[in-house]
């Protein structure tokens, strides 16, 4: 079949020409705003480009993308990790490589490797530069670095099996909203007792998860960036140094990247920076270049908080991992350690809008259902959760659409 015949095999959409014209005009204006570096212009233009695709695509084209292109793209990305394709593409200053060269590191079948590569090229993850010859594009160049690249491994190995079994799990639980941390979709799919135990038993995926989180962190505005949370006014001013009062503790802080960034971006901070994590994660944190700048401690946040009256108890991506009951236990331990009127809990999480919530929040919400039988929360849900343990929200700061917000709460 010729290229033209293949292209016309999918019925074309009778689209609204006026709507398309209007979107194109908006895109043109959006492009000018982007050139002038107007804040938010990137997000707006991207949204307009998505609207254009939706306006032009026929339902069949859109559904083919969902059914065929995207699942195969994730598979091809996962195979690229095992076949070391992103590394091989990067070698020799990224010069184009033949399929034979790309298949060599694993002594894989060139035919198999070509099938993976051509789908990656078709879905814009790399360039095809000739017959059976490929080179990096901006995406594959980015994937030379482990961080978000390892997200492919994590999502494929940990999240996808759970999503695949989610319909069966929901049918068995009579379509009730999952909320059992010990018997949720993840345990059902992976035949395990607990997400964290499963990760410990799969150290490669645990490392991939931590790399992925570090990648996500780099990609988003952080709360100490200008125009986000006023760190100087809310934390630095009035800092005391008696006992543990001058501590900023990152509860469940992963490898300690947030503390390292705080150390760099808030030079006026004269207090201590303490990481609290599970033992295997502390071991990974010890190998980080910033390890000497922070205190690394093992602490289970389901046990009483040992640091009393600290200035800040920071948690990023912690409470969305737990159903309300478990969150209340975590929060009560912090509340009991806090000094009223001085200590602050800082929750760095999604605050999901009641209407027109961005896909970044709604997608993560489904992931949370599949992984932890939990959810992303709306402002009302955050207020209810915190007030149920005697905490009051003293402010919510946000920057950009689809990002995390910073919720400050006090006793
Ligand atoms: C989603 S990750 C977030 C990590 C980090 N805050 C970040 O934003 O990159 C959740 C973290 O909670 C930690 N964690 C899970 N259960 C814990 C527990 N009982 N006590 C302390 N940390 C725990 C995990 O090891 C993991 O690093």
TrEMBL record:
- Give TM regions: none
Q: Name one GO molecular function term.
A: O-methyltransferase activity
What's a Pfam family this protein contains?
Answer: Dimerisation
Report domain O-methyltransferase C-terminal positions.
Answer: 247-390
Coiled-coil-forming residues are none
Give all residue intervals belonging to the O-methyltransferase dimerisation domain: 79-143
Key words of the record: Methyltransferase, S-adenosyl-L-methionine, Transferase
Task: Write down the InterPro entries for this protein, in alphabetical order.
Answer: COMT-like, COMT_C, COMT_dimerisation, SAM-dependent_MTases_sf, WH-like_DNA-bd_sf, WH_DNA-bd_sf
The protein's superkingdom reads Eukaryota
Q: Know the name of this protein?
A: O-methyltransferase domain-containing protein
- UniProt source species: Heterodermia speciosa
